[in-house]
Amino acid sequence: MRLAIVGGGISGLSLAYFLIEQNFDGEIHLFEKEASFGGKIETTYLNTSLVEHGADSILMQGINVENLLKDLIGTEGFIDLNTEGFHILSNGKKNFIPSGVASILPRNLDHLLSLDLFTESEKKRILEEREIEVLESDESIKEFVSRRFGSAMFDKLIGPVYSGLLGTDTAEISIDAAFPQIKALEKKHGSLIRAAEKIKKQSFKVISLDKGLGIIIEKLIEKIGSTVQFHHEEVVSANKKELWNIKHKNGKECGFDHVVFTTTANQTAKILKSNSPDLSDALASISHKSMASVYYIIPDQLISISKKSSGVIIAKSDQNNITACTISSLKFKRDETQSGDLIRAFIRSEKTLKLDKDSLREKAWEDIKSVLEIDVVPVGFSVRYWRDAMPVYGMNHLRNLSKIDILKSDNSLHFIGASYKGVGISRCIENAHALSQAIL
Ligand SMILES: Cc1cc2nc3c(=O)[nH]c(=O)nc-3n(C[C@H](O)[C@H](O)[C@H](O)COP(=O)(O)OP(=O)(O)OC[C@H]3O[C@@H](n4cnc5c(N)ncnc54)[C@H](O)[C@@H]3O)c2cc1C
User: Fold this and answer.
1) For the domain bounded by 2-40+63-69+213-287+393-439, which CATH number is listed?
2) Beta carbons of 259 and 412 less than 8 angstroms apart
3) What's the mean pLDDT in 46-73?
C-alpha cells in the first residue's frame, strides 16, 4: 500500500510513527510545505532564551501520548509547570486564581470556595451542582457552566478565563465538541464535583520539556526517518481516479492508495476543491481564527506581580490587544543562568493582527506594561503570526463533522488534526494512533 500523509506537524509525524511501530506493510510518503517540520510546535531561541512560538505544554492525557513521549524522550527533561496560579483581569480588576480552580471540572473545590470572588449564596449554588440533573443535549460553554454551577461561576470565573484562553465568546462554543470528556464525566458521575473527587490528580498532569517541545519533532524524525519518504512540497490538489493523484505546487503528480490530511480543514478544503466541491464546502465551514504569539525580554527582576503567578489572562470584555500574558521565565524555569525575564503574550484581535511587526510590538507592549504594572524597555522581541490557524468548535461543529463523514464516503481518504476532534497535542496524538489502527 502507498500512503500519503499531507502535513508534517505532530499529527502527521505521530501517525507515521504509530504505523511503523505496528509494522505497516507499505510505503509512507509525508508532504510538508515548510522547510522544517513541526507545524504549530516551533521551538527557537531569542537571544539565549528558549521560546516556543506555538504550543509550550502538554496535558498528559492518554496512554499513547505517555508511551510515545517515554519512547522518544525517556523520563528526563520533563519540567512541571512552576506556578501556583495566575491572575485574571476582568472589568478592570485583577484577581489571583490558584491552580486548579479556573476549570469547568472543579479540581480544587476548597480553593474555589475560598475565593473572595463569590458571595456566600453563590458558593452555596456552586455546591448545589451535585444535585443538578444531567442534560443529554448540546449546550454552549456558557449555558453548561451556568446551568450546573450557577451564573456567578460563569460570569465571574469561567467566562472571563475561557474567553481569554480561547480568544472567543464562550456562548458560541459547543461543550460537546470542545470538551466531550467533561460531558462524559457529567454523564458518568451525575455531577462534576463528584467526578473531580473521584479522578486522581495524576490525570491532569501538564508538562513541558527543558529543551522545548521541538525535541519531540526532532526525535520523531530521527525515529521514522529511515522508513518514511519525506517531500518538502506544498500539495495543491488531490483527485481520486483509480488512485489518489497528489499534485505538488511544482506541477509534479504521484498516485497513492490512501491519503491522510493533517492540514487544517480550511487548507484541506482548497486541496480537495476540484475532487469534491461539496466535501470541500463542508470542510470550509469549520471556522478558524488567527492569532499571534509575541515574546519580549526585559531586564531582570522588574516584574512587580506576585512571583506565585504565572501571568494574567484578560477577559474578552476588557478589550485589550492581548488576551493573555505569561512570564515564561518564571512559569518554566528552564535555565538558571538566563539573564532577563521572558514575557509571552497572545494577540487575537483581528484589527491588531493586521498591523506590521513593529506596530504590533508597540501596541502589545502598551497592554503588557499596564497589565503587569511595569515600566521598562524590552531588550529583545519576536513575533509569530498564526493566520487562520486556530479552529473554533462552534455550536454546529459536530453537525459539520457528521456532514464531512457522509460526504467523504471513501475509506481511502482520512482527516486528522486539530480542526476536528481536539485541538491539544495529546488529542492530536491519540487521534493519530486511532487512525493508524484503522488503516492497519
Ligand atoms: C500559539 C499556539 C499555542 C498553542 N499552545 C498549545 C499548548 O500549549 N498545548 C497544546 O496541547 N496545544 C497547543 N496549541 C495547539 C497545538 O499546537 C496544535 O493544535 C497542534 O500542534 C496541531 O498539530 P497538527 O499536526 O494537527 O497540525 P499542524 O501543526 O498545523 O501541522 C500541519 C502541517 O501541515 C503543513 N501544511 C499545510 N498545508 C500544506 C500543504 N498544502 N502541503 C503540505 N503541507 C502542508 C503545515 O506547514 C504544518 O506543518 C497551540 C497552538 C498555537 C498556534
Assistant:
1) 3.50.50.60
2) yes
3) 93
